[in-house]
Design a protein that fits this description.
Helix content: over 70%
CATH topology of the largest domain: Receptor-associated Protein
Distance between the termini: 87 Å
Oligomer: single chain
Strand content: 5-15%
Strand order of the largest sheet: 2-1-3
Low-confidence stretches: 46-62
Mean pLDDT: 80
Largest sheet: 3 strands, antiparallel
Number of helices: 17
Structural class: mainly alpha
CATH architecture of the largest domain: Up-down Bundle
CATH class of the largest domain: Mainly Alpha
Amino acid sequence: MPTFRYRAYGTHGELAEGSIDGASPEAAGDLLFLQGLSAFQMRTAESSATPWWRRELFAGQGSRHAELAAFTRELATLGAAEIPLDDTLRIVCEQAISPRMRAIAARLLADVMNGSTLSDAMQKHGNIFPADYLSMVRAGEIGGRVGEVLEELAELLERRLEVRGRLNSSLIYPTVLVVMALASLAIIIGGLVPSIAGIFVGSGKPMPSGIAFLVALHAMWLEILTVALSLAALAAIAALAALRRPAVRLGLDRAQLRAPVLGAFILQQETARFARTLGTLLKAGVPLFQAATSARTVIGNRHLAAGIDAAIEKVREGVALNRALQSATPLPPIAVRMISIGEEAGKLDRMLMRLAAAFEAQGQRSVDRFMTILTPLLTVVIAVLVGSLIITVMNAILSINDLAAP
């Protein structure tokens, strides 16, 4: 059944836009009439198969986060200018950089014009708007401060992008270093070694053991690559099968938190993410229980998330948040102490934001220290590896003179 894009007037003269399925334009118009809409424009929707030259080639999870942050910032900016919501969504439909967010804005506009609230319209796109996002928007609608909530949401999402960007930036130099080292090894083994081996083969003299090994490696590279990829595929399949079992994933996440260095870093990041999200929700006026339930969804470690779930149940029973977290989760003692101070002072949202900023800074320092150690270590390892190959090749080149000796 074809899909039609329509523009219509509602019973009170309001403008509505959206899409509807129908056997024909007339049938689609009849369906809209039953919904209280009078269509004045009806056209066939464009095919969902976007041409390859217009597709978003790198539209992964990271780009979705960036798109959502930019979309929220646009809504917040227009809302601060006291522009009505429907006009705001129309402007976003025309100005949003991402085609995906333009389409989302158009659907939100159609739902809002049909009487839905913004949070209800967003809830239909759960893959775009997470649970904590929807909770904040809904709280803003109840309190009549959607504009302020969108501003806080934009700051939260931009802060998350900033932290993620810092981590990614820290990995750029080591990645380039490893890629260049692999390229150097490929040039030596694939280009230089075969040319030297030909001299020994032509003279009938035995090749040095190092060159013989490299020649064998070059000759069997396809077989070695096939075996390596097969083993990697089998390992990946076995790992995926194991990770489908909740007990295995819970045990793995528990082991991650207990790792000497990695565990502390993961706990810092998870604590900062949870604290910033919870603080933002509380600042938006979301009650503590609902805010903690929504903030729990940003936790990636299942062992920590299970502990927070247990703490939330204790909060439901009337236990203070700091005591519930202290007894049910492995959160750092300093974090629990700061939460306790915030509860006693009646400024829990502000203390959570400070806690998040402190742990984000601490996590960034941990990454910087790790990269300070990793980069020289990689440089030394790569230098030894490439240097060993070069020495092997140079010894073989020098031994060519022996081939010409009587």
